[in-house]
Specification:
The protein has 20 helices and no strands. It is mainly alpha-helical and 342 residues long.
Length: 342
């Protein structure tokens, strides 16, 4: 399960439903194309909508819906072009502005996306999903305070809106407002207790406020719901370290490394736990693994140097401390300076 980085942005589209297609005078070909989209056959749906457009070149609905299909296939430029054609024939189609904003956001064009979302709201000011999407774009641009305002607007329009609550919680975490973030995640959980991510982020906020036992419970619940959630294992390891459960932390790092094929940071963190357990040979091996994955990793050189000193390898210790210092790690410089001044 991938988070990142540990921030999953939940983006919602406003597609035109079959009922709206019928109300707009759609025919059997339009409905057939829409059903292909709903089944996930996006390439087939593009072809079907293209046939609709060939028979009705001014169908805003067909262009909008073909844009949705292209976006689902990752063709964001093609989607943007189709939404533009939809708006050419129906400048009041809020859904097309929102959908074009989503495509632009997916392509990393967040400022342009906000312009589209804002236009959608000028047409219809009571679209909570659009406020949510503006919030996500502002988060991507680093404007977290403005993003909070957008998520608040979405939630005021739709109080039972788990996606906006989740996104607001994550934004509050970014601003270190962990108590408020925790309330948001608990609200999300109250709507659906079978979704792993809110438990994970509850754990992050609990740990940040010093409730490591509570955090361990949250991470454990996230793991129960999503056994492959390697970030939850790594986070639970940190919480266990803070409660002096080093054996439990070692088990969690073992599992996280197994699931993630072992990042440099995870090997380094496991090495720190092995030191706490006096497993110096294991710590040395983990530091070496970390350094295989990240060549200029000053902390790993430093720790391996200290461990090699404990193992009686003075030459290896001094070599690693020098490499750590050369990598820019200040603690290594201080220690080498002390040794020279003796």
């Amino acid at each position: 399960m991938k988070t990142s980085r540990l921030f999953l942005l939940l983006m919602l589209m406003l597609p035109i439903a079959v009922g709206n297609v019928l109300a707009a005078g759609g025919d059997a070909a339009m409905i057939k194309a829409w059903l292909q989209y709903r089944k996930g056959n996006y390439s087939g749906a593009v072809e079907a909508y293209t046939r609709v457009i060939e028979s009705n070149p001014q169908s805003a609905e067909a262009y909008n819906n073909r844009g949705l299909c292209k976006a689902a296939l990752g063709d964001y430029d093609g989607a943007v072009a189709d939404y533009g054609k939809a708006l050419k024939f129906d400048s009041g189609m809020a859904a097309a502005y929102n959908n074009r904003g989503l495509a632009r956001a997916k392509a990393g064009r967040y400022s342009e996306a906000i312009v589209d979302y804002s236009q959608a709201l000028r047409i219809n000011a009571v679209l909570p999903e659009v406020y949510n999407n503006i919030g996500l774009a502002r988060v991507a641009l680093g404007d977290h305070f403005s993003a909070l305002d957008e998520f608040n607007s979405a939630i005021s329009l739709k109080p039972y809106y788990p996606e906006a609550l989740f996104n607001r919680g994550r934004t509050r975490q970014q601003l270190s407002n962990h108590k408020a973030a925790l309330r948001d995640f608990l609200m999300v959980i109250s709507y659906n207790r079978n979704y792993a991510q809110p438990y994970y982020y509850c754990g992050i906020s609990r740990s940040a406020t010093g409730d490591n036992k509570g955090a361990i419970g949250d991470f454990s619940r996230a793991i129960l719901l999503a056994p492959g959630y390697h970030e939850a294992y790594a986070a639970r390891a940190v919480a266990r370290i803070r409660t002096n459960d080093f054996r439990g932390a070692l088990d969690d790092y073992n599992r996280a490394i197994e699931l993630q094929a072992g990042s440099a940071e995870l090997f380094y963190r496991r090495a720190l736990v092995r030191v706490k357990l006096s497993d110096y040979a294991g710590a040395e091996a983990d530091c070496s693994e970390a350094l295989e994955k990240r060549k200029r990793y000053g902390e790993a050189y430093f720790l391996r140097g200290i461990v090699r000193g404990e193992l009686g390898n003075r030459k290896g210790m001094l070599s690693d401390l020098r490499l750590s210092s050369e990598s820019g790690y200040g603690e290594a410089r201080k220690l080498l300076k002390k040794r020279r001044n003796r």
